[in-house]
Structures are given as C-alpha cells and as structure tokens.
From TrEMBL:
<dbReference type="InterPro" id="IPR006076">
    <property type="entry name" value="FAD-dep_OxRdtase"/>
</dbReference>
<feature type="domain" description="FAD dependent oxidoreductase">
    <location>
        <begin position="2"/>
        <end position="343"/>
    </location>
</feature>
<keyword id="KW-0285">Flavoprotein</keyword>
<keyword id="KW-0274">FAD</keyword>
<protein>
    <recommendedName>
        <fullName>FAD dependent oxidoreductase domain-containing protein</fullName>
    </recommendedName>
</protein>
<dbReference type="InterPro" id="IPR036188">
    <property type="entry name" value="FAD/NAD-bd_sf"/>
</dbReference>
<dbReference type="InterPro" id="IPR045170">
    <property type="entry name" value="MTOX"/>
</dbReference>
<keyword id="KW-0560">Oxidoreductase</keyword>
<dbReference type="Pfam" id="PF01266">
    <property type="entry name" value="DAO"/>
</dbReference>
C-alpha cells in the first residue's frame, strides 16, 4: 500500500512516524522546511486542562505518548513546569479534569500559586495542571524528522486528483499514484482539499508570539526559584476581552501571545501592520500587568497564520482515498493524533477517537 502525507509539520511528521509500524510505503511531502509553518517556534504549552472531558482524556493519552517518545529519543520533550489557567473558565476546566480522575488543583488567591509572573491581586480562580509544561517543539521536530528522513520528500504538492480508489499527487517533482492520502498542510490544506469536495475553512488571520527577558528571581535561601509555570491568563482583567498565554521559551526568557480583536488580526492588514498592532498591545500588557520582565521590548518574535475560531478540537473529513485534518492548538495532541491518523489513512477510514 502506498500512502502520501502532505505536510511535514507536527501532525504530518507524527503521522508519518506512526506509519512506520505498518507494512506500507510512505512519502511525506513538504514544500518548505519541516516544522516551518504553523509548527514553527522552539516551544509550545502542554496541558491536560480543557473544558470537556473528551479533550482531557485525549490530552492524557497524548501525555503518555510524549513519555514514550522521550524514552526513544533519549531527551526531554515536555518539561515538568506545570500549567496554570486563570480566569472565568478555570472552574469548568477543573470540573472536566476531575470528572476523569486527573489530578489538579483550584485556588482563589494568586499567592497560593507561586511560579507565575503575576502581580499581587491578579484575579483568579487559578487551575493548576501538574502534568502541564513546556513542549520542546524544535527538539520534537528534529527527533521526528530524523526518524522519518527516508520518507521525507522536499517537494511542493500542487494538486491532488482522484480516480476510482486511487489518488495521484501532482508535485513539482512529478506525479505519484497512491492508495491513500493525508492532507495535513496547515494553511495549504484548504486549497488542496477544496477541489476534492472537502470543506476545510480557508479563512486566515495573523498571530504573533513575543519573547521578553526575565529577571533572575531568588528564593528565600538565595538560590534561584524553580522555573516559572506555563500560564494561560483568561481573566480579562487588564483589558476587557484580552487574554494571553505565556511560558518559558528558554533560560531567562518568557514567551507570550495575546488574543486580539479580529480587526487587529485580519488577513487583509498584512503581516507587518498586524505585527505592529500585536506588539503594541502585548508590550503594554507586559509593562502594566506582569512582574519579573526586565524589559517590555521583545527580543524575539514568532509569526504564523492561523484559522480563526477553531478552538482546541481536531477536525477531519474524507473524500474517497483522501483524508484531511485541520485545527489549532494541535501540537500537544501530536503522539495520539499521529497514531490515530496513521490508523485511519492505512484503513482508508476516519479516526475513531479524535475529539
């Protein structure tokens, strides 16, 4: 059986990695650099904290998968910093986690949750997810790409055609007929899937994450405090409707992104104007709302294009031998999602367990 995976971001690579267990021939096509699209950047946040029990279970299964990857890779891929979610939906996430027996805590006072760059009086409640932490995204991509290097095809897919039970990949390097296809091409998924009748949303908006230098904070014994927890701040108390997510991007560096109004992320603005607006808001937020930031001027910026309004779920659709997958915040699900998509594309069906 011949299988094409289109896209070598985290979803495409993890699926190709899982397909090594199957008696199939696989080509993983990538037009640019592996992990160079929506998966770009050195770090991400892992969390079990979701608002539905199905997503919590899927994230827990993925956490087990990350542990298996770590054993094989011989390196840490998800840190042990833990993740905190604050604001109105913290209680709902706590309830969803407790409903499936996941360990977590809920606190009303920021003083009970050390390890956040939060000022005294920052409003809660605060959900603490002990299984959360910083995903070493770049290290993960290096590990997966090395493991599937014989399947990688650095070649731009131009279109996919279907004839009967087979599909043909038309790329800059030629045509390849195969039995099953997974489109996991990020922003390119809609253009490839649309002509096949797959209803993948094509709307895009700009998203930025900025990194700031942190102060070295000493503990009561004079030593440095443990690494800061990942923090998803959803209280909206700095500015109505503004929420953020932040985590350690490296020693002494805090990466943070903000959720801005649609008018400030609209695709028609272009990346430069959208970056200017995002940086203006986030740097002001850092200066006025966070502690431990040495300088509210970013030292690094990560940009990607995202699909608005998708939230945390996984979306799939099939047309004949072609399966498409899309979504946002998929990085944390990579081990489980890759395994489920591999099974689905090998069986030419739909994945059974994705939430």
């Amino acid at each position: 059986m011949r299988i094409a995976v289109v896209g070598a971001g985290i979803v495409g690579l993890s699926t190709t990695y899982a397909l090594r267990r199957y008696p199939v021939s696989v080509r993983c096509y990538e037009a640019g650099t592996p992990m160079g699209g929506r998966s770009r950047g050195g770090t991400r946040i892992f969390r079990l904290a979701h608002t539905t029990s199905s997503l919590v279970r899927y994230a827990a299964r993925s956490r087990d998968g990350w542990t298996r990857w770590e054993r094989t890779a011989g390196r840490t891929l998800v840190g042990r910093e833990s993740t905190v979610v604050s604001g109105d939906d913290a209680a709902a996430r706590y309830a969803a986690m407790r409903a499936v027996g996941v360990r977590c805590g809920l606190y009303s006072d920021v003083a009970a949750v050390p390890g956040l760059p939060a000022r005294d009086g920052t409003p809660g409640p605060f959900l603490v997810d002990p299984a959360g932490g910083v995903i070493r995204a770049e290290a993960t991509g290096e590990y997966l790409a090395a493991a599937v290097r014989r399947s990688l095809q650095l070649d731009a897919v131009q279109r996919i055609t279907v004839r009967g039970d087979t599909a043909t990949i038309h790329s800059a390097g030629g045509a390849w007929e195969c039995d099953s296809v997974l489109i996991a091409a990020g922003t390119g998924t809609a253009a490839l899937a649309g002509p096949l009748g797959l209803r993948v949303p094509a709307e895009l908006e700009h998203a930025f994450r900025f990194t700031f230098p942190l102060a070295a904070t000493a503990g009561p014994d004079g030593g440095l405090l443990p690494p800061l927890r990942c923090w998803i701040e959803r209280s909206g108390s700095w500015k109505d409707g503004f929420t953020s997510y932040g985590h350690l991007a490296g020693p002494g560096r805090w990466a943070i992104g903000g959720h801005l109004p649609a008018a400030d992320t609209a695709w028609g603005l272009g990346p430069e104007e959208a970056r200017r607006r995002a940086e203006s808001v986030v740097t002001t937020y850092v200066a006025e709302f966070l502690d431990d930031i040495v300088d509210p001027n970013p030292v690094d910026t990560v940009y990607c294009a995202v699909t608005p309004g998708l939230g945390d779920g996984v979306h799939v659709d099939r047309a004949g031998p072609v399966l498409a997958v899309w979504g946002e915040n998929l990085f944390k699900f990579a081990p489980a999602l890759g395994a489920d998509l591999a099974a689905a594309v090998a069986a030419r069906g739909l994945p059974d367990e994705v939430p």
